[in-house]
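Revision sheet: structure tokens.
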Amino acid sequence: MTSAFTMLRPLVLASGSPRRRAFLEGVGLRFDVLPASCPEPRPEPGEDPRAYAGRCAEAKACFVLRSLAERRDRPAVLSADTIVILRDKDGASILGKPRDRDDAAAMLARLAGRTHEVVTSCCLAMDNHVECFDDMTEVTFAPWPRPVLEAYADSGDPLDKAGSYGIQDGGAFLVSSLKGSWSTVVGLPLDIALERLLRAGVLGLNR
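Predicted:
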């Protein structure tokens, strides 16, 4: 396909997410995929959720960059980490991937009829340069009754997704409104990521 962008140096996506891969492929980028195999950091007591997501993304990008130290073509590494944040009178709760079907149903019940935040933090690491950036979108769920949420949990679709739903898959019906970027909810703030790749000299523009 003809792309608006040209690759100026090799790019490695430090994520096995097919959705993030599809976003980059959709704008014609060429890249390798090498998911980070490091342990997932745990939130620190009182840590801001957005700061935690950024710390996770940075840990993944730096881990993969270190593993590529022997490559002479000096690749840039892009990572991403998506979390769901539900705020109430007791503070902010981070909703990650559910443990099982019952945990997914419980998460969905907490989100039903309420607005939550989806934050995707990214990290671009290359040479001695490390920069993190993020984006937040507000998502409001329709007040679906428990049997509907249970049926969606039974489908298996929520089990590998933060917050127990995929807006790009079978969970789209859950959402009544969205304020912000759809791609951020799916897992990559594409416009921001492309701008950072251009600014860092990983991409150029085809003219």
